[in-house]
Amino acid sequence: MVATSDTESSIVEVCSTRMATTQITDIVFDFGGVLHVVLDKIATTKLRDELAAVVGFNSGKEFRERVYQGEEWKLSKRGKIPGSELWDRVLIPLGMTDEQGM
Question: φ and ψ at 78, to 5 degrees?
Answer without folding.
Answer: -90, 5
